[in-house]
Design brief:
Layout lengths: L6 E8 L6 H4 L10 H7 L8 H4 L5 E4 L11 H9 L3 E4 L4 H10 L3 E3 L10 E5 L4 E4 L4 E4 L5 H8 L3 H7 L6
Parallel strand pairs: 1-2, 2-3, 3-4
Antiparallel strand pairs: 1-5, 5-6, 6-7
Helix pairs in contact: 2-4, 6-7
């Protein structure tokens, strides 16, 4: 799972509020280290068609408190492995937010958005700008700190630390 793009244009998959980590990846699948298994079951209890509809690079959009529940890292890993390039939400559970950054999955907070399913979005991670090309509306996400952009650019925290000489096995 390599570096992320800082400019992303893709289709939105839109869901509601309080989507917890068990809805993102059911607990019965968290015993595996096989990322393709996680990807095959991502969001299946929330939207059984998600796995069939999501395309590499697509964007997941949600309401408030996305990623609440447990601290399992498999939730952002499953989304990333399924092809999600970025998650936008009104706000995130803090542990999900940090886990996502740590594994190289960009997350953006837009407190008030009206993004609809299927909208084509254009995102600039560095500036935090999100353009809904379908509805011709622009949003400004809470800007990610430069250190988080650097972590994302390296594909996650471990790669970032390895590159910067702060990590050894």
């Amino acid at each position: 799972m390599g570096k992320v793009q800082t400019t992303i244009t893709a289709k939105a998959h839109v869901y509601g509020d309080h989507i917890d980590t068990d809805r993102i990846i059911p607990g019965k699948y968290t015993k595996t280290l096989d990322l393709s298994t996680l990807a095959n079951h991502v969001l299946e209890d929330l939207d059984p068609n998600f796995n069939k509809e999501v395309q590499q690079g697509d964007i997941l959009v949600a309401g408030i408190n996305f990623g609440c529940g447990s601290s399992r890292e498999q939730a952002p890993l499953a989304l990333k492995q399924a092809g999600v390039s970025v998650v936008i939400a009104r706000d995130f559970a803090r542990i999900f937010f940090r886990n996502a950054i740590n594994i190289g999955l960009p997350v953006l907070e837009i407190a008030d958005h009206n993004i609809k399913k299927g909208a084509k979005l254009e995102i600039d991670l560095k500036s935090g700008s999100v353009k809904d090309l379908t509805a011709n509306i622009s949003y400004t996400a809470t800007k990610l700190p430069d250190i988080m952009i650097s972590i994302l650019n390296e594909g996650g925290l471990v790669n970032y630390l390895k590159k910067n000489g702060n990590y050894s096995l």
